Amino acid sequence: MDSSGPVGPGCRGGALSARPECSPHPSDSTQLVQECLKQFEVTEAQLRQIQASLLGSMEQALLGQNGPAPAVRMLPAYVGSTPHGTEQGDFVVLELGATGASLRVLWVTLTGTEGSRVEPRSREFVIPPDVMLGPGQQLFDFAARCLAEFLEALPVHSRTLPLGFNFSFPCHQTGLDQSTLISWTKGFKCSDVEGQDVVRLLREALKRQGVTSLSVVAVVNDTVGTMMGCDPGLGPCEVGLVVDTGTNACYMEEARHVAALDEDRGRVCVSVEWGSFGDDRALGLVLTPFDHALDLESLNPGAQRFEKLIGGLYLGELVRLVLAHLAQHGLLFGGCTPPALLSRGTLGLEHVAELQDPSAGTARVLTVLQSLGLSPGASDVGLVQSVCMAVSTRAARLCATALAAVLGRLQHSREQQALQLSVATGGRVLARLPRFRSLLQETVMLLAPECSVTFIPSEDGGGRGVAVVTAVAARLAAHRCLLEETLAPFRLDQEQLVVVQAQMREAMAQGLRGEASSLRMLPTYVRATPDGSERGDFLALDLGGTHFRVLLVRVAAGGVQITSQVYAIPEQVAQGTGRQLFDHIVDCIVDFQQRQGLSGQSLPLGFTFSFPCRQLGLDQGILLTWTKGFNASDCEGQDVVTLLREAIGRRQAVELNVVAIVNDTVGTMMSCGYEDHRCEVGLIVGTGTNACYMEELQNVAGVPGDSGRMCINMEWGAFGDDGRLSVPSTCFDASVDRASINPGKQRFEKLISGMYLGEIVRHILLHLNSLGVLFRGQQTQRLQSRDIFKTKFLSEIESDSLALRQVRAILEDLGLPLTSDDALVVREVCQAVSRRAAQLCGAGVAAVVEKIRENRGLEELAVTVGVDGTLYKLHPHFSSLVADTVRALAPRCAVTFLQSEDGSGKGAALVTAVACRLAQMARV
Ligand code: 0WK
Ligand code: BGC
Ligand code: BGC
User: What class of enzyme is it (predicted)?
Assistant: First the structure.
């Protein structure tokens, strides 16, 4: 710096000396003084330029487009859930960083009733300089000891008190209690903290110091605490402004404008971190040599340039540098530069506040200067005050400019020209420099005239606000525990799944041996999968899934052609009489034949009948019990093919040759087997669930012959109906079972399939609603109605491509009054329920493929599983979770899952084709 500018500490030619350096009083002093102070004047044009540049940086950062050195950071503060006003309880707040070399501990009691306040108890602890610059552990241990000391005198009574950590530094927050320090500011520079989660560091320190009565539930930036502490009676504060040792602001931004967040509804609090504005030279036009000198000697040169123009930590230093400059140029203190004026930190905020206080008379100013080791003359008072005024005026106007930029952002974000809002303010610069406050208001009105701003000084530096955020965090943390507790039984670990696999193997063996077992292991009389030589036209029926279909299946050399028609099975038919049901089926067949010009033709027909049937032959199946919402009378215990034939018989002029009845699992296996000959397992995960596979005939009791294989319909939906399934049954499963038309039956199915998952979720949501975790505990009528939460919602809500906003849309269509937190909770519930279903299904498939491998005495087995069913096909993660579980539980089986394209109708036709071919060969 040239001789005309300020000098570095100490004296010319090097080392600091106690003896003041003196220089002659220049003739043109007034002009020199004017020149010097003029540097601190910022014109309105410059302010507007800074305002525009800052607004530009803010919007760039919101879009996630930060340059190499982000001008401002725009950090989401995870405070979206605004206080209900009902928050109550005792909270401890630890404030670190807001007020420089001290930390404050507060005990805040929230009454939960508007207007009634309990004065917080607080204590300030001075932080030794070596602690502010030493190892991070030392700083956090110091904080923990202060907390312990503070609590000693207070009625803690072995409770665990929620602690809110007011940590006033730039942090990437990833949760209300997770925050990574980006960089220190304001006189702090502890090692091993930047890049770390400061909540973890505090928790570890509390542990090391044996403080067990505190649980850290939230970390909050001081601007957020200031905004949240704003008395709701004075109107919602949507901006929090702090000017203390450092400076910063936060405000409520539309969530959809924050690229870093996956949310578009509602608002979220964003900490601007404007202290770093200008680090990319945007401030070049207003920075003075004094600012550069201050920056060079600071702990973080080149950083926080904007803060160093405004923050209370720097105002005194700037004044000192100017006073030193003026003294060295003989313009002050008789041209003598006392050592005090050359040593950093001599002048603090309180000095500037006193020196510039217009009501402080000359005597007072002289006293203050003498207390600093200076020997001022009366003539110096005016100049010293002007210097203080120049520095703090610039600070106030620049702070106002930044605030005006934030207001401009709010105008953009709310698409409102005129804005009326309250700004909560905190910090000693605002509190101690009255001129600062008035200049701030004036300049804001100048730069943002359309905004009518009410400034609301925070009464306790944001302590109450931090307590409110902590209360909200505590509430969310408590909700998180309740949610974890509720969902824990749905989280199955590998060990539990291995047990399920073993229990299924045991039940399979018992079922095959014809012993009592919840797995009926029904022989299907399908002995082979298609070999591609099948030919002909076949009719097929597909009953039991979401849709009833009639199909015309043409099997030719070139492949299989299918024409099909979906028909509805009204509930009153599905739950009417058997006669009604089968007459309805024949009506559909006749309608189909007419549409396809097949009337009068008697094509071989394959009947996919997706219910448990004991087959006595390919075309004989005794219905054992209805499942999946069907309950037609006079059918159970009857041969379904007979019932169909009788219905055909009741209909004049209809000729149909029912050749085979197959289960949809068998149809699916056959249909996929036509494409992939290794397909020896059929799996359905749709309305219901079930599996079949090719078993060695010798293992099938009750079916003559012991060579070759036969397809076994496991009817695994009933697995566990004998109580031998160790998977914990939750009260929600019990509610779904109780409300079903077949209580106590199809236990495994009711844990897995599409007919039930939505209902399980609905019951869990009702439970969480009753606990106050969801929908603010408000009763939601809509959720009381059965089947209102469709299983397809799970598939939609869990889709990765669906942002939270779409989750909300689905739920709002259900008329649920939800917050964004609620949408997250609902998604988590859906994930837990579908994950359990997929894992259990995977454990079942693992049991089957291991059985086949062992049947064949193979080290390794490569097998294909043909799959169908809406849940398996539409759910975004179900199929991969099933495959992961099978890989984990049957590592020696290479399992390919082949989704059936044409459903099991084709399979039924192929079974019919095989039967016809075999019958043909038998006749030849
Ligand atoms: C389509 C098949 C049908 C089966 C259904 C199961 O063609 O046989 O019953 O899948 O899935 P859902 O329709 O129950 O979801
Ligand atoms: C920090 C901010 C804080 C402000 C006021 C700045 O140095 O980066 O996080 O809000 O000081 O304390
Ligand atoms: C039935 C099975 C059928 C499964 C899938 C179950 O309810 O009992 O026969 O395979 O649903 O549709």
Answer: transferase
Angle among Cα 576, 580, 582 to the nearest 5 degrees reads 115
24: three-class secondary structure by DSSP:
coil
Between CA 622 and CA 609 the distance in angstroms is 11
Beta bridge partners, 240, equal 250, 424
Q: For the chain, what's the residue count?
A: 924
Has this prediction a pTM greater than 0.90?
no
What per-residue confidence (pLDDT) applies to 20?
Answer: 54
Does 432 qualify as catalytic in the annotation? Answer: no
CA 788 to chain CA centroid, nearest Å: 25
DSSP string for residues in 493-525: -HHHHHHHHHHHHHHHHHHHTT-S-S---EE--
Under-50 pLDDT residues of the chain: 1-18
Told to judge if 197 belongs to the known catalytic residues of this protein, a careful annotator would answer no
Which candidate, 424, 496, 395, 64, places its Cα nearest to that of 229? 424
User: Taking Cα atoms as reference points, which of 73, 635, 42, 128 lies closest to residue 393?
Assistant: 42
Question: Which pLDDT value is given to residue 708?
Answer: 92
How many A from CA of 732 to the centre of ligand 2? 48
pLDDT of 279 reads 61
Q: Is 664 a catalytic residue?
A: yes
Edge to edge, what strands does the sheet with 861-868 contain?
Answer: 522-523, 709-713, 689-696, 679-685, 861-868, 893-899
Beta bridge partners of 804: none
Alpha-carbon distance 722 to 743, whole Å?
13
Q: Which two three-digit tokens encode residue 32?
A: 């020199």
875: tokens are: 């759910």
Residue 166 has what pLDDT? 95
In this prediction, residue 155 carries a pLDDT of 77
Give the closest ligand to the alpha carbon of residue 755. Answer: 1
Structure tokens at 853: 């491998």
Q: Which two tokens stand for residue 121?
A: 């108890």
Res 869: pLDDT: 96
